[in-house]
Design a protein that fits this description.
By secondary structure, this protein is mostly beta strands. The protein is built from two helices and 17 strands. The N terminus is likely disordered. Bound molecules: zinc ion.
Length: 358
């Protein structure tokens, strides 16, 4: 059985193909996944062959810009809209602290306002599936993904990602909250009591739930039990489909990348960046390899179809849950290296990288 969020799958993809996707979720597969993922909240991805080009032999003509942002206005409390605006005003008045030659980008301020919707536990998966990240399509095999999937057994508790008020808690058969009726089956949408950096209301959506344990209009606290994991709607196999929406909680076209909203665990950070052509055009569908001495992870760029960048960041890829350390970021095609650069992941922070491809 497909352990993926079929809410984001085209119907045709219900038919197993001969390509990569697993077609059965046997118990052993589930256990293997949990075993594999439990020690470190990252997904181990099979080592991907990369060209054996040493950095010193790389062509230097490819113009690339790397801006490692040092966010100084990380929100550690729950500011009101006023304090949020004030924080940005304060930030905007600070002198540039970035390395000389690197454009100072005051806009890129971390906003890790959400906790994970699944409790941290040896037996639960509390991080999103990296094979189908926000904006991912699994190489065109599936519909663009509007959120993150947390694979857990039916009836696993789902927790509110932050304080707020329940906007919607019902089946989505008669009230559309996605691209089609009965898309999420049963869903909860919470409006949080803070705004996005651009001053718009922030919502989280919890889809395919088994049990709804709250009602519309109810106030909830961060970490409060609101639902349990199920497979309602267009889904095969129980999992939580989790979205962040900005501006309009009912509009599935208003999602944002949850990786930029969910607080990293201590000892972990997030990579975010932008891949663009030399003319500055967004390049979707690019595979980004992030490699350290232990393993190679993958993520993919997005854009255009239904998903949105944070307007402040203008990112088109992220890779969350990276242990603090140094990595190589690599883009290659047909064995030819197009980009390769070393980066550092910092504790609780976002490392920003810009990649320009010819
Ligand atoms: Zn999903």
């Amino acid at each position: 059985m497909l352990w993926m969020c079929l809410a984001a799958c085209q119907p045709v993809m219900l038919i197993p193909t001969a390509t990569a996707l697993p077609t059965e979720d046997t118990k052993s597969t589930v256990e293997a996944r949990i075993e594999q993922f439990t020690p470190i909240p990252t997904v181990e991805i099979a080592l991907t062959p990369t060209p054996s080009i040493t950095p010193t032999t790389l062509p230097t003509a490819t113009p690339t810009v790397t801006a490692t942002i040092e966010p100084t206005a990380t929100w550690t409390t729950a500011p009101t809209l006023t304090s949020t605006v004030m924080a940005e005003v304060v930030q905007a008045t600070l002198p540039p602290t970035a390395t000389i030659g690197v454009p100072v980008t005051l806009r890129r301020v971390d906003h890790y306002r959400l906790r994970r919707p699944i409790e941290r536990s040896d037996t639960l998966v509390d991080y999103g599936d990296k094979t189908y990240p926000y904006g991912g399509t699994q190489f065109g095999a599936r519909e663009v993904h509007l959120g993150l999937d947390f694979f857990n057994a039916r009836f696993t508790p789902i927790l509110a990602a932050a304080d707020g008020v329940v906007l919607f808690a019902d089946s989505d058969i008669t009230t559309l909250v996605g691209p089609a009726a009965n898309y999420y089956g049963k869903a909860i949408i919470i409006q949080h009591n803070f705004n996005s950096p651009e001053g718009l209301p922030v919502f989280t959506l919890y889809g395919h739930v088994q049990e709804i344990l709250v009602s519309a209009g109810q106030s909830v606290k961060e970490g409060e039990l609101i639902a349990t994991v199920g497979d309602a709607g267009v889904a095969i196999g129980p999992h939580l489909h989790f979205e962040v929406r900005v501006g309009d909680g009912f509009d599935y076209r208003m999602t944002r990348n949850p990786d930029l909203w969910i607080r990293p665990y201590p000892g972990f950070g997030t990579l975010a960046g932008q891949v663009a052509s030399a003319s500055g055009a967004n390049m979707a569908g690019i595979t980004i390899l992030v490699r350290d001495t232990q393993r190679t992870r993958e993520t993919y760029t997005y854009g255009g179809d239904r998903v949105s960048s944070n307007p402040a960041w203008e990112e088109n890829f992220t890779l969350a849950d990276l242990p603090v350390g140094t990595y190589e970021v690599i883009v290659s095609t047909n064995g030819r290296s197009l980009f390769r650069e070393a980066i550092s992941i910092r504790d609780g922070d976002t490392t920003w990288i810009e990649i320009t491809l010819e």
